[in-house]
Write the structure tokens for this entry.
Amino acid sequence: MPNITKRTNKDGSFSYKITVTKGRDANGKQIRHFMTFTPAPNMTEKKAEKEAQRVAFAFEKQIEDGFSLDNRQTFSQYAAYVIDLKERSGAKHRTIERYRQLMERINPAIGHIKLADIKPQHLNAFYKNLAEEGIRKGADRAQTKVDLPALLKKKGVTRAQVAALAGVAPMTVTTAAQGKKITLERARMISTALGYQVNELFSIEKNTTPLSSKTITEYHRLISTVLAQADKEMLVLFNAASKATPPKLERKEAETFQPEEVQKIRDCLEHGPIKWKTMTHLLLITGCRRGEIMGLKWEDVEWDRNRLKIARSLLYSPARGVYEDTTKTGNIRRISLPSETMQLLKSYKAWYSELRLKNGDRWQNSGYLFVQDNGAPMNPDSLTDWLNKFSKRCGIPNVHPHKFRHTMASLLYFGGLDSITISKRLGHAKVSTTTDIYSHIIQQADEQAADKIAETIFRAGKKEIG
């Protein structure tokens, strides 16, 4: 039998504290479950008492059925528990890191709401807010409006000293000194280190672009994950996220290089540094993810079978620095290579061996294919940075690692290969992932196939007659 206690507030309004006792804990103490019912302002006291009794018996029924609606636990508190649970269960570091980044925006919006009180309306309002202009954090950019190198010389400090004092990377100071844009936060840190206000040294460019539907969907999926766990643990009656309405995910067509761009890239690479040439070549030929290329070790090159073993990824995070992880799906796959690629790898290995000999005792034997000048693992971001510079130098727009992956998939589809084979080469966990990403390319390849069939069956005879 539930216990109902009326509480009258100073302003004359009132509420009811409902207590249901069920079971005992490990120490033999009775377990009590609580909830508060606040009647509508226009409800008479008699009606309120009747409604409180109805709510109390419904609450008791929920407890009897195994639900434990904890009105004291907020979404923020429970989300922290779920993320820790995911981390202990072996979720990837990058995934946990992203969850915690997303919570920085989720907590101010719904973190304070009690877990059992989360409704679809709360989530829909949050998603609407995310789609508004000016919502982005840390997206504003800054560009020097003074001669920063001259200012540093005048003050008698080096870029490295300013970087150390400001708590930023030396490359950030160099980028600013070159007149390139950096984040507003970093500009503010550099300005403070030099004894100036940020607007004295930098011009600020506001970014009012709303978040994309893809990013908003990330927030929705995390909230859904948290509430799904609460549903699983019978802490809520239902997953409110499953009844919310996030924005429709706008799937963009995978960006690929045109055949003439591929040829231009190959021409530009021909006389470039062999390390970067080999990395870029492998991106195109294998279709591997950036981290998978950077995670290759010499033991993964199967010289006798002309193939590579893709067994790991090399990643970077501010918290851990450069670290090794499994592939995105956790699976190991092997990719066959053409003879031209194997010949390039042999030439690169000869260069690599010379580099190791030159370093002598300074050499760090990390075992990776692509390393710094002393043999230490490379930051994966360095490949993206190099390709950005390569893009400008060769006049080819948007040269980035994943574009090579999309290009390889496109070439294979137009070459007539099936989705299962392509999916396996790309390392997708499901074939449906491949067909979803490349649906427009599959359609184009199918249209091309229809033309070839028509050319063979219907038009060949006409050509002979003519």
Notes: The longest helix spans residues 439-465.
